[in-house]
Design a protein that fits this description.
single chain; mainly alpha; 9 helices
Length: 285
């Protein structure tokens, strides 16, 4: 099962077509296991004794590692967003300047995300840099929303994002959401179609003016906003699966940074879709 995030899909968080976990492939080859992907899982236990079948790797990723790295990454986003909100007011005198800095920060964050996605190993400085610049962008956008709609709009978007995260985590833990190859294929196909439509809408907006094809305003805007949130929720389920596999199959501890990176990107996606929904529903699309 491959991840929705490119930073995961290029690594062994997931099982390949034969069901193996990439991080344990070398151990499976050494042991000669051909069918059982759990044979060399360092966390597996012997049914007869209840003891681990193999020594636990001391440098293996744990849930605590993922939580701490995610807290650092999201904390960086929140910190720089707060600074940008205060330092870059969105008013008549500073509107162009603030928006210009926000767009520049978004572009830098995008480049850093691409750099990390194509690196063979996680680089905390690049990941935190992405979080910092993404936070600047979110801070200006949130400030603008608060200025023209009201502070309650940002609070609603934040609470909505938290509810989606908690709901998907609960559903995943209860196994109401089962991440399969079919689920992955459907989500990725839907995401590609969604992004293609958004790009086309943006191009029409830039060259034809107005709201392009109307996919981000009015009734269609609400529909596509809801679809965007649902896709974000699906991405969260895929991310949780990658974290679960990484812990179960003994991924190196440094890979916790990639888990944090993927989760942060997904939460940013959901927050932006929530913010857009609030803007449309308030009549300020």
């Amino acid at each position: 099962m491959r991840s929705s995030n490119p930073v995961f899909s290029r690594r062994g968080f997931s099982r390949d077509a034969g069901g193996y976990a990439g991080f344990d492939a070398q151990y499976q080859a050494q042991a000669g296991t051909a069918t059982n992907p759990y044979a060399t899982n360092p966390y597996a236990t012997d049914p007869a004794t209840g003891m681990p079948q193999a020594p636990v790797r001391t440098n293996a990723m744990t849930i605590d590692d993922v939580v701490s790295r995610t807290a650092m990454t999201l904390g960086t986003v929140i910190l720089t967003a707060t600074i940008a909100w205060i330092a870059l007011p969105v008013d008549a005198a500073n509107l162009n300047k603030s928006y210009g800095i926000a767009i520049g920060a978004a572009l830098v964050a995008f480049v850093l995300a691409l750099v990390q996605s194509f690196k063979r190993k996680p680089t905390p400085a690049v990941i935190l840099g992405y979080a910092a610049f993404e936070g600047v962008f979110l801070g200006v956008i949130s400030s603008a929303t608060s200025t023209y709609i009201g502070a309650g709009a940002v609070v609603q978007a934040v609470l909505g994002t938290m509810c989606v995260f908690a709901g998907v985590l609960f559903a995943y833990k209860m196994r109401w959401i089962r991440v399969t190859r079919r689920f992955y294929g459907f989500v990725m196909a839907a995401a590609m179609g969604f992004m293609l439509l958004m790009v086309v809408n943006l191009l029409f907006t830039l060259f034809a003016g107005g709201d392009g094809l109307g996919f981000r305003s009015g009734g269609l805007g609400i529909l596509f906003g809801v679809i965007g949130v649902i896709l974000g929720a699906c991405f969260l389920a895929l991310d949780f699966k990658q974290v679960e596999d990484g812990v179960a199959y003994g991924a190196p501890r440094e890979e916790a940074w990639l888990a944090a990176f993927g989760l942060t990107m997904t939460l940013v996606w959901i927050y932006l879709e929530m913010l857009r929904l609030v803007q449309i529903l308030s009549g300020n699309d």
